[in-house]
Every structure is written in C-alpha cells, then in structure tokens.
Specification:
Length: 601
C-alpha cells in the first residue's frame, strides 16, 4: 500500500522557495520596535486635532503627517499578515497578527478626526486652500472623495468610536482565515488501489482537476464532509460580516448595504447590476455547451458539479520549472516596455515570491504591496504550466502597485477594486498570446486555450456566481432575513441550478461552495474580477492591434493609481465600461474559445 508524500512543515522548506521578509524588517525585534514607535508617533497627527482646516498649510501638513504614519503602519501590518499567511499554525504569528490588528484599530481611531474635520469644511474653502497650497493638488482626489462621503458622515465622536472597533469589525474575516489555516482538517481518503491521499485546502484544487474520475469524486466527497462539519460556524461568521454592513449602512443613511459598499468603490448600481445581469444571461449558454463538451470528451454517463474542473486533455499536462516559467513570463511581458519588464524581473528573481508548499500555508494566491518596499506574492508551486499563469497574474498586481507607488503618494496608490483585477488578467492574456504565437504544437495550442478559458471560468463563472450569491444575500439581509447555513446553501444551489441548467447535476455538497473563498469578507469584491477581465480583454485586443500606443495608454492608467475613479481609469486605457459593449465582446470571446475546442475534439 502506497502512502502519498507528506506535506512539509514551514521550517523544512527551501529558503529560495520563500519570500524575503527582511526587506520589510530585518528581525521580529525590529518589527516590535516599530510597533512601539508608531504608537509614539501618533502624536505627529493628533497635534492637528481641532485645527486641520484652520489654514491651507495646516490641511497639507495634517494630510502629509497622516500619510507618513499610515505608510509605516501599512508595512508593519503587512509583515504580520505575511508571516501568518505563510504559516497560520504558528502561535507567535497568530499573536503578532493580533498585535498588528490592535495597533491598526487604535491608530485609525486616533486619527479619524482628520476626515471628520475635512468633511465639516465646505467645498469652497477646500478649493481656495488648493489654490493657496500647491502641495494640496496631490490630495485633490482624496478631498473630493471625502466631500462625496459628507452626506453619510457621522458625528466625529461616533466616527472615532467606529474606528476603534476596527479589530472587532475584522473579526469575521480573521475567524474564517484562522479556522481555515489552523483548525480545519480533512480526513484522508483511499482510492480502490489502496493508496491513501491526504487532503488540505491547498491540495483540493489538484484533485478537482484530476482526470481520474474516482480520485476526483472521492476527493470532493471528503472535502465536502470536512466543510460540512464547519458550516454552522462559518455561516455565523459570514452572517456577522453581512450584518455589520447592514447596520453601518443604516447608520450612515445609505439606501442599503449594497449602496454603501458600491459607494466605497465609486461604482454606480447601474454598472454593478449591468455587469452581473449581462454576463449571467449571455455566458450561461456558452458554459452549458462547455459542460456538455466535457461530459462527452471525458466519457461520463453523468456530469456532476465536481467534474467541472476536470482536464479535457487528461494525458497532456505540460510541466515547467519555476526557472523556466520565469524566463517565459519575461519574454511574454517585454511588449509592455523596459520599466514594466524590469519590475517583473525583480519580482521573479529577488524573492518576492513565496512558492513553497507547507502545513499552515494559506490557500490560493495573492499579491500584497507594502508602500515603499516591494510587493510580495504567495502561491504554491507544483510544477504545472498553470502555475506560470498564476505567477503572471500576481506579477500583474505587483507591477501595477510598483508603478502606482513610484508616481503617487501613499494615499493615492490604490484604485477602486473595480479596476484592480485588470492588470493581473492582462498579464495572463499576454502570456497566452505569446505561447500561441510561438508554438506549432496543436496540442499545446489547445492546452493554452483551455488554460485561457480557465481564467474566464475563474472570473466570469466562479467569481460571478459568488457575486450573484452576494447580491442575493445582501438583499435578503437588508430585508431582515436571518442568514443561516441552511439559507446560504439553498441560495447557492439555486443559483447553480439556474446557471448550469440540465448540463450539470448539482448535489447538496455544491451548496457549501460559499465556504471556500475569503472574498465574501472583503465587501463586494467577487464581481470586480469580471470587471477587470472585461477591461483586460479589450486592452489585450488593442495591444495586439495597435502596439505601443495601447501599451502607453495602459501604463498611464497603472501609474495613475487611485487618482481617478475606476470608470475614468478604464477610459484612460481606452475601455468604456459605462456601456455593455466591452462586456458583450468579452463574453463573445469566451464563445469563440469554446467553438475552437469543440472542433478540436
């Protein structure tokens, strides 16, 4: 009887496969000293209390002091977050995250008066101040955003009290993440050949994609059994997250929690509902065709939810080393110009990437970008060519925030979430195009199309169904409906059945899908994946057609950071998301890929 390889402890993985956090802080002791220093330096901001808008100089100095303090806090908080993401089982990292969260809540509570005092001022005064102090021009968007929030501001003392509860407000997300990485365990399962297979959050996606139907379905059953044991706890955590937004929206006199969350992204309800409605309606027929193609090619009598990610070409799984992938990605992205390529090269070779697999490591992939240092990327490398696309995706985030930080102040670097997934998915599109233009292997071409389609599946199906689920849950919560595990499972099953129709058998376990992603604890985040991919689809087509002019427009949008609203950023890049045209073009592109796949089998 064969036993699968054991997942190593964090202490057992090779250093070169981990990120170098000494670029943030040389030692944990240095980090602790910085926490103390940040608490001490809060006074550099609080000295402006009651005087922020007394003069143009005061306003500028207060905003500069706030930026400087939050930049330091940002680095300290990210250091704690990254350590725990790499090994959530370490009690020291757990405690340090709590210390950072507590400090963050205290600092934001202490300096919340700045926004309150600015919102007390009138627009005429602020405009006059910007004329008097040219340095305030860099804060124009910051000040304009505060003026938009003015109708929804609370009394300064209430704002301070809410900010002081920051760590408590983040508790649902913290509980979810802590449970996933530290407590949740899945039972191993055996296949008929006697092999025992270990199962974790990180390893489950590998089983989902397996061409071995027995392996895939048994892994799914074991995974569902594990999730089921935690569903009521996770439902309570998510219900608290939703209720938090419902209560705050009511306090701030928004029409609904959805209105409040969209306002924070500077996205209109028309943009939000239009994106969801258009993709759900127009993509569903294409994806049902895709599911039926998989059923035919895989030779399955019945096609279940757990079969959706099975490989269509099970015997062709191109492998690639990290070093080979780095070279390939660099070649693909040189079209973006020397500055962009230089950032990508640094990220690939200077230990920005944590690619090891170890117990306690957070599942999935992300890029975290501390201002003034460099981004950090987390993923798990298993030697598949798909890893190269994940790496390219996260490097898109990294390059975006490096360029924004080089050109903007701390408070101006982050754009709306509506835009943030466009740079990452554009990198994937460019990598796909690069491979397709240089390969003469028909099977590799088909594999790349399948990989590209998996990106659209991830953003236009997985995340869009999450978004539709969120839309339903927030609507129910606004009406006072109790959010329970039963309700969450019923809603997810219902939307899956409506989307997939008779092409896919939706079992009860599929209803637990809402437990798998942390995005539900990040506001209305899931739908923004489809917004970003819609924009990047259009930009990739423009780069292919126009070359350098399209690249320059795109780089200008990246360098603008958060100085423009998301619709304006996309328009700067040449994409008008105020219409359904780019959405329909992106969905149609998915249809053409499925057309080509149908012909290839």
């Amino acid at each position: 009887m064969e036993r699968a390889k054991r997942t190593p402890l964090r202490s057992e993985v090779a250093m070169e496969e981990t990120w170098d956090l000494t670029d943030l802080f040389r030692t944990e002791a240095d980090w602790r000293e910085e926490l103390t220093a940040i608490r001490r330096e809060v006074k550099t901001v609080t000295r402006f209390k009651g005087k922020v808008c007394e003069s143009a100089k005061n306003l500028l100095d207060a905003l500069l002091a706030k930026d400087a303090l939050l930049e330091r806090l940002n680095r300290a908080a990210i250091y704690a977050f990254l350590n725990q993401a790499a090994d959530g089982t370490d009690p020291v990292f757990q405690a340090n995250t709590s210390l950072a969260d507590s400090l963050s809540s205290d600092v934001h509570a202490a300096i919340s008066f700045i926004d309150s005092e600015i919102m007390e001022a009138d627009a005429e005064t602020l405009n006059r101040y910007m004329e008097e102090e040219k340095g305030l021009q860099e804060f124009r968007k910051v000040l304009a955003d505060l003026m938009e929030k003015k109708p929804h501001k609370l009394h300064p003392e209430a704002e301070e009290a809410l900010a002081a509860f920051g760590e408590i407000h983040n508790a649902p997300y913290a509980i979810y993440q802590r449970s996933k990485t530290s407590d949740m365990r899945f039972s191993p399962f055996r296949t008929k050949d006697g092999t025992e297979h270990p199962l974790t959050f990180n390893s489950f996606p590998k089983y989902e994609e397996s061409a071995d139907t027995e392996l895939r379905r048994k892994a799914y059953r074991a995974f569902v059994e594990g999730l089921n044991r935690y569903k009521n706890t996770y439902a309570a955590a998510y219900a608290t997250e939703v209720k938090k937004h419902v209560i705050e929206a009511a306090l701030r006199k928004y029409a609904s929690a959805t209105d409040m969350l969209l306002a924070g992204q500077q996205v209109t309800k028309e943009m939000y509902h239009g994106l969801l409605d258009t993709i759900l309606a127009e993509l569903s027929p294409h994806m049902r065709r895709y599911a039926k193609l998989k059923k035919r090619v895989l030779g399955l009598d019945k096609f279940y939810y757990c079969d959706l990610k099975a490989s269509l070409d099970p015997e062709y799984d191109p492998q690639i080393s990290y070093e080979e992938a780095a070279e390939l990605i660099l070649e693909a992205l040189r079209v973006m110009g020397p500055e962009y390529a230089e950032i990508i090269e640094q990220g690939l070779y200077n230990r920005w990437v944590d690619r090891a697999d170890n117990i306690g490591k957070r599942s999935g992939a992300f890029c975290s970008s501390p201002y003034g240092v460099h981004p950090y990327i987390l993923m798990t490398w298993n030697g598949s060519m798909r890893n190269a696309f994940t790496l390219a995706h996260e490097l898109g985030h990294a390059a975006h925030f490096v360029l924004a930080a080089r050109n903007q102040k701390f408070s101006n670097t982050r754009p709306s979430r509506y835009f943030v997934e466009a740079p990452s998915t554009l990198n994937e599109r460019l990598l796909s195009r690069h491979i397709l233009t240089r390969t003469k292997n028909a099977r590799m071409r088909r594999w790349v199309i399948l990989q590209s389609l998996s990106t659209y599946y991830h953003n236009f199906v997985t995340h869009l169904l999450e978004a539709e689920f969120q839309r339903r849950i927030y609507d129910l919560a606004d009406k006072g409906t109790p959010i329970t595990a039963k309700l969450l499972c019923e809603q997810f099953i219902d939307l899956l059945e409506k989307f997939w129709g008779d092409a896919v058998i939706i079992d009860e376990g599929a209803g637990l899908t809402w437990m798998q992603q942390p995005h539900y604890y990040m506001g209305l985040y899931p739908y923004t994946y489809s917004a970003g991919l819609t924009a990047s689809t259009a930009v990739a087509q423009m780069i292919e057609k126009e070359g350098k002019p399209a690249v320059e427009r795109w780089l200008a949008a990246l360098k603008a950071g958060g100085t423009l609203k998301p619709l304006e950023l996309m328009q700067l890049a040449g994409v008008d998301m105020s219409t359904a045209k780019p959405i329909r073009q992106a969905v149609a592109y998915v249809g053409t890929m499925i057309d080509e796949l149908e012909k290839s089998f």
